[in-house]
TrEMBL record:
This is DNA primase. RNA polymerase that catalyzes the synthesis of short RNA molecules used as primers for DNA polymerase during DNA replication. It comes from Gymnodinialimonas ceratoperidinii. Coiled coil: none annotated. One of its GO terms (molecular function) is DNA binding. Binds 1 zinc ion per monomer. The lineage of its organism: Bacteria, Pseudomonadati, Pseudomonadota, Alphaproteobacteria, Rhodobacterales. Monomer. Interacts with DnaB. GO terms for biological process: DNA replication, synthesis of primer. Belongs to the DnaG primase family. It holds the Pfam family Toprim_4. The keyword RNA-binding does not apply.
Amino acid sequence: MSMPPGFLDELRTRTSIAQVVGRKVMWDNRKSNQAKGDMWAPCPFHQEKSASFHVDDRKGFYYCFGCQAKGDMFKFVQETENVGFMEAVQILAAEAGMPMPERDPRAQEKADRNAQLAKVTEAAVQHFRLQLKTQAAAEARAYLENRGMDTATLDRFEIGFAPNVRQGIHQALVGKGMAAEDVTLAGLSTKPDDGGAPYDAFRDRIIFPIRDARGRCIGFGGRAMAADARAKYLNSRETPLFDKGRALYNHGPAREAAGRGQPLIVAEGYMDVIALCKAGFEAAVAPLGTAITEDQLRLMWRISDEPIVALDGDKAGLRAAMRLVDLALPLLEGGKSLRFVILPEGQDPDDLIRAEGAAAMQALLDRAQPMVTLLWQRETEGQVFDSPERRAALDNRLRAALQRITDPGLRRHYADAIAELRRALFRPQQGAWQSNKGGGDWKSGGWKKGGGKGRGFAEAQMPLAATRARVGALSGERLRTGLIVATCIRFPELIDVFEDKLDRMAPRDPDHARLAAHLLRTGTRDAAALLDEINASPLAPALESLLGLSHLAITPFLIGDGDAVRAEECLHEEFAKLSASRAIEDEMFEASQDVAAVPDEGDPALAFRMKEALLGKHAAQNPKGEDNAEQFGETSEARSAFHQLLSTAGQGKKKGV
């Protein structure tokens, strides 16, 4: 079966050979350099202890210096899985989420056709380069010279010129034996709808050849010389060879430079890439006149784990940066991200390098911002957060953005970074409940309301009389839900462990309910940051009310540095008690309803059922008490409670309830 054109290239783009090989070998971390895609391991094809098996992830090949085994990812799967080539393709396509193409008897014919189109584009490159040396290109040469383009640079990037004639390239290529339809199919000429003679797609423009990662010329970009041209920059239209959303200018050379350790820089246009390369930043690429696409982003990550996006400091550049943030968020994963350089307003990399030199560009690259900083800047810059509603709106926007990150671990780290930025913006005033500035020093006791030093969890204190009275008035369930919420605030990492139970807890105390809802919404997993986050929100009074519960100040695992293991054990126990208690309440209520429907002499089975429910409630509330179930059944407390329930049910029956 023949593969359709581009299928294997697309599969190589989506699949990393290091990932394929990594399933079969143990990498030597001392010898490998993952950032450069330079990986070493003991060879899987012969017995050895040294790491002589080398994988070049960027070039997509492996080689063993011991047994001389070599090949690409398809060959590796063939050898290790004992399958044929097509089966290897099927395995890798399934892993990459690519459906296998239908059997196409004309696939080879299409491949041959594309090879012929590539010959046409290569001939066009040579034609345009010759035209740049003619008298008609005098203005274009002057422009390029003014932009700092010397002969070596023109040759390196194969820059040419398309004269302002209607059929210049079309007639030249047809005269060299190229088929007229191939010249049109390659995007070099356009056939009018009225059936007239084809005319050139590029006229009176400086020409930049666009090559794919393999070095084939797949299309062209043209910069207009006329100030009143309809488009300053024009790309080849979509052809069997050229898809501008899946190509990068300077792709191949940039990949090689990145393999030598240079940072991958993403600029906006052709001239920026050329200027960066001239200044020594050879791992530079650019999208082709449009916003960066998902396919282009994946191509960049194949070259480098953390490309640096260098954008103009004008409004258009900032808008492009923000669009890229939204595009990248769902695609992020551990080790794959972006950094951003926003240039001074009114300058692009070419302007900056010509004005201040390569050192100025390097200084900006050294200060490249992580993507989370740009996300925060977008949501906060130029805004005022002087009310709870505005702060809540900010939280909602940030939460929605973070939810787009599919990697749970990465999403948590982003939430931690956002919490840190938020804490700096909304640092509570002196006297508010918050954690120590040092972060996470819970002192030696339970809870303390401070005015600067020693804020947050601090020394255990004797509760005030008013606090003791309030605690005495609370039900056992309120004390239990308070302990659960407080433990989750003290150890936020346990929120993920008990998320389902916390969601179903539904505290009857409104303060506990609001705090529990916040714990389910927040992505903050740092205890100090979480306290500050709550203090900076309308939930601060609810937190103060919770911290007023005296039994929290003497809970061992909340004191001092805390005991996360004991805290987790406690939550398991408290959730179980809460569930049992509520189940017993439901049982007693249903039994009391049934008693109301039986004759006056009562139903022994229902009486037994209610008695058992009371015993269960006592056991749930006193799991370590001295009285067992049988002893409890004989106590005056049990008899009193039991008869009170029966009496209540009987009265309800007599009243027709």
